[in-house]
Design a protein that fits this description.
The complex is a heterodimer.
Chain A (H helix, E strand, L loop, with lengths): L3 E10 L2 E11 L4 E5 L6 H9 L6 E6 L2 E2 L10 E4 L11 H11 L4 H14 L15 H14 L4 E5 L7 H18 L2 E6 L2 H7 L2 E6 L2 E6 L1 H6 L4 H6 L4 E9 L4 E4 L2 E4 L12 E6 L5 E2 L8 E11 L3 E8 L2 E8 L12 E5 L6 E2 L3
Parallel strand pairs in A: 3-8, 3-9, 6-7, 7-8
Antiparallel strand pairs in A: 1-2, 1-4, 4-5, 9-10, 11-12, 11-14, 12-13, 14-20, 15-19, 16-17, 16-19, 17-18
Helix pairs in contact in A: 2-3, 2-4, 3-4
Chain B lengths: L1 H50 L10 H5 L3 H33 L5 H14 L5 H11 L4 H10 L13 H25 L3 H9 L4 H29 L3 H6 L6 H10 L6 H29 L5
Helix pairs in contact in B: 1-12, 3-7, 3-9, 4-7, 7-9, 8-9, 9-12, 11-12
Classes of the chains: A alpha+beta, B mainly alpha.
């Protein structure tokens, strides 16, 4: 039985449909990210779980209890906001203890829980400080502690790291994940940063224009994108149109080059057009032993990206990226060189139209 | 050696440009400083000096002693009372109005209309305001007559009187509440929606949000604007003077002492004004103390 369940959710603002046909089951203790560009409906969905928006149609249930029509202050759901939303008139300790004070817990219980939360976020000394005296990263940790202090059934995080600089983002997301694992709390995380979603989540819901595009583990989302949108949104991807040559054997043709795919082409006829995708890191320069999926190419550009080197090659009239690990002892080809690239049959993904 | 000389030249040049920039910045402030010296410090110092002089210019404490006579003490009390009543009344009304248009979800044009009206009304005081109220709610005012003719209600028979304390307070309210609207509008704009949502998410009701979050955040603005409203009413002269001669607020007394032909005693007038400065200074001191106690997060 799922712990958090969103069933047939639809949200409409006037004539505009923000979320449609949204169905999701989240297990207890699972960390699920909603990933998508601005305006895709991820924050609206999160706000419907928090109770700040009421679904036009559909049902939200936590631990098998329907909370769809409950007011936000009647749901035991903790939320961390993008802009921290710490109360500036309260100290860190007062912010963390606010929810417990509202619940009329005893002063000693509040103090004990606040100390516990301060220890959890490693800010034991900051209890008497005001939010304005903290850095952005520290404020967001306090916001997390405040949301967790009330022992919520579900923790919601609305782009909590987007206001922070890159280095702090990376360290804080690891800290958020570690805390979530330690407490075993069910968490929903909204982000538009694919790297963040891939690194932190048990599962990712990729959203576009109010719809769920794909739900899967980070591994599945990255390696086996099911739609052109997911393929283009998550990671760098070469996509192109190919022509079916032999559907039974998975043979395709792009720009005069022959490629084979391991995916089934059931129902496709010879001459049909399909969209295929290949990750840049799945390409490599062809060795002499390699027989399948070897295509001629020309080196167009070489970009050094630190740990990897991105090489742009042209195959026929199309241009594709190929990533290779940076190895200072291997000689790179030169721009204008003619060469051959290859990829496995499994690397050629056929996307749903 | 040549490098050291070049560095020295560069340092001298950057110091020179810094001095020039400073001079230019100070030059911009000069008109303000001249204005403040001529029209604030100079009059204030001559006013304070005059408070301790008799009409022939000799030092005396008599003017200060005279401030404690019953009629003058009554005038101070009246001024303080009307200032407190209109500051609190105008403050509450203005705050609620500002809240309704800014946080209440009313159409944008209502806000524009209200702030435009407030900008005009907060500066509409003195004889024109008194006349407007007399013409509207005086004994033969338009509304008074309308109530009497159309509804058969004589508001003066029901206890209303434009020319007593509450009538004057009502008139003052006309410029007090718009001032509150103008001051509180930006403060209310600064209340972030996330604070409400965060407090609701933590289980707080609307009342608890206002009690623990919104009002404490607005408190410095509320306190500051109430003091401003107090000062605004405390210093009002022409409205009280034109509306009623039976209510002797301090400013009217000062006018009598400085320009009157019966009570002419400018030095007592200066002492009265000096007393007002003391009261305002005490009010501002109280405000600062209260703000320090209640809004430590701002420091």
């Amino acid at each position: 039985m799922a712990f958090l369940e969103l069933t047939n959710i639809r949200k409409q603002f006037g004539q505009a449909v923000a979320v449609e046909d949204f169905n999701l089951k989240v297990d207890r203790g699972e960390f699920v990210s909603f990933l998508g560009p601005s305006g895709c409906g991820k924050t609206t969905t999160l706000r419907m779980i928090a109770g700040f928006e009421i679904p036009t149609v559909g049902r939200v249930a936590v631990d098998n209890v329907d909370i769809t029509d409950k007011a936000p202050n009647q749901r035991n759901v903790g939320m961390v906001f993008q802009s921290y939303a710490l109360f500036p008139n309260m100290t860190v300790a007062q912010n963390i203890g606010f929810g417990l004070r509202i619940r009329r817990e005893s002063e000693s219980a509040i103090k004990e829980r606040v100390d516990e939360m301060l220890a959890l976020i490693h800010l034991e000394q900051k209890g008497p400080s005001y939010p304005s005296q903290l850095s952005g990263g520290q404020q967001q940790r306090v916001a997390l502690a405040r949301a967790l202090a009330i022992r919520p059934q579900v923790l919601l995080l609305d782009e909590p790291l987007s206001a922070l600089d890159a280095k702090i983002r990376v360290s804080l997301r690891a800290e958020i994940r570690a805390i979530q694992r330690k407490l075993g709390i069910t968490a929903i995380y909204v982000t538009h940063d694919q790297e963040e979603a891939l690194s932190i989540s048990d599962r990712i819901v990729v959203m576009s224009q109010g719809h769920m595009e794909q739900v899967g583990t980070p591994f599945e989302i990255y390696n086996f994108p099911q739609t052109a949108f997911v393929a283009s949104f998550v990671g760098t991807l070469n996509t192109t149109t190919a022509e079916v040559v032999d559907s039974a054997r998975g043979v395709l043709q792009i720009d005069g080059a022959r490629l084979e795919t391991a995916e089934k082409l059931d129902g496709r006829q010879k001459g049909d057009k399909v969209t295929i995708a290949i990750r840049p890191e799945r390409f490599s320069f062809a060795s002499e032993q390699k027989k399948a999926n070897v295509v001629d190419c020309r080196i167009e550009n070489i970009t050094f990206l630190g740990s990897i080197v991105r090489i742009q090659v042209s195959i026929g009239s199309g241009k594709y990226y190929m990533d290779t690990f940076n190895n200072p002892f291997l000689e790179l080809p030169k721009i204008g060189d003619k060469d051959q690239v290859t990829c496995s049959r499994e690397a050629v993904l056929v996307l749903k139209s | 050696m040549a490098q050291a000389t070049q560095n020295q030249i560069r340092a001298n040049s950057s110091q020179r440009s810094l001095v020039i920039r400073n001079l230019v910045a100070w030059a911009g402030v000069v008109p303000f400083l001249v204005f403040v010296i001529l029209f604030l410090f100079w009059p204030a110092s001559s006013l304070i000096t005059g408070s301790f002089q008799n009409q022939s210019g000799a030092f005396t404490l008599q003017n200060i002693i005279d401030l404690f006579t019953p009629s003058i003490m009554n005038a101070y009390m009246l001024s303080i009372q009307i200032s407190i009543v209109t500051a609190i009344g105008g403050g509450i009304f203005g705050f609620m109005l500002a809240y309704a248009v800014i946080q209440g979800g009313l159409p944008r044009w209502v806000r524009t209309a209200l702030t435009t009206f407030s900008g005009v009304a907060s500066n509409f005081a003195g004889v024109p305001l008194a006349f407007a109220f007399i013409a509207t709610l005086g004994h033969t005012g338009f509304l008074t007559a309308l109530f009497a003719d159309k509804l058969g209600i004589d508001i003066y028979n029901l206890g209303f009187n434009l020319y007593n304390f509450w009538g004057l307070a009502l008139t003052y309210m006309y410029f007090q509440f718009p001032l509150m609207v103008l001051i509180m509008a930006p403060a209310l704009d600064g209340l972030r929606e996330e604070w409400r949502e965060a407090s609701e998410n933590l289980g707080a009701s609307s009342y608890q949000y206002w009690r623990y979050v919104a009002l404490p955040i607005l408190w410095p603005s509320l306190l500051g604007s109430t003091i401003l409203l107090f000062g605004n009413a405390f210093g009002a002269y022409a409205t009280a003077y034109a509306l009623t001669r039976t209510l002797n607020v301090v400013t009217v007394l000062i006018g009598d002492q400085i320009s009157g032909n019966v009570l002419f005693n400018p030095n007592l007038g200066y002492a009265l004004a000096f007393g007002m400065i003391v009261i305002m200074a005490v009010s501002i001191g109280l405000y600062t103390w209260l703000q320090r106690r209640t809004a430590r997060w701002l420091q």
